[in-house]
Amino acid sequence: QANGGLGAEVHGAVQAARRAFVDDDGSRSARARAEHPVGRHDDARIRMDSVLVEARRRGTPWIAAAALHDLGNLAYEQGDMAAADRHWEFAAAVYDSMSEPPSAINARINRAHALVRLERHDDAKALLEKLIRDGTRIEDQAPRIVAVAELGRLMRHMGRHAQAERLLRQARFESEGEEVQTTDFATIELAGVLSATGRAAEAEAVLDSLLPPTRLASITHDDHAAIWYERSVARRARGRLPEALVAAREAERLARRPTGRASIYWLDAAVEVGRCHRALGQPDSAVAILGRAARAWERWRAEISDLEWRERAASGLSGLFAEY
Question: DSSP code of 320?
Fold first, then answer.
């Protein structure tokens, strides 16, 4: 499946595929999925809404659940965590109605991801702990391992570094060679824990394990950006500031979308570039990149349905400006 790092040739191929699709439920869903990675989020959302309505009319729950899941993905990437949570909750309910526990667990794991961004940490923790228990009762253990990794990520955000490290190492060990994307995710999050606990050199070594070309070929575009983001954080912690700025700029470049539209990943990377400039004694450059982030945020925030999260994020960006 294509991702945000499409080159010109792949971009053209996806556009050609879009034009070739016919309008039944499945092909319209595929068309919307093709529009998402090339940055056509509005077109993808409109088309996926149409797929959802038609799937409900025809009584095709698999397509309805897939459409809800993809609508959640779109909302999450564009920063609307409350909408993402709603879509994934509905998707999980549809999967439940079809007796599809692995798919329902995956949808609820995504819910936990949104709840973390919304800072509803207790809700996310309770949900993930239940999913881990539920996951032990099904044959496919992949969803349980993902839930362990997500719980580790939550513990990191809550500042419970010892618990986070234990869970992330467990997820990394259990997924190695089986669930590559889970291994990547757990490795990136583990690097963040290591940097936060004074082990930045070890964090860089952990991240280096993901960078051989044979390994990069299977890494998602957003995870690739996250690797460089965490490398920047680790290098700043080690006082290697010029190298940190190089890594932050690479994260920002990888997190861009072809349309130039902001995403939650790009905003994080742009702020890290600003932090590097500040550490290097370059406040003007820091303010310039933060200005770009603020302008992108202002264009973006009007679409976000959760007012509390929107204002909190805006306040965070304002706080960064105050520091600089």
Answer: H
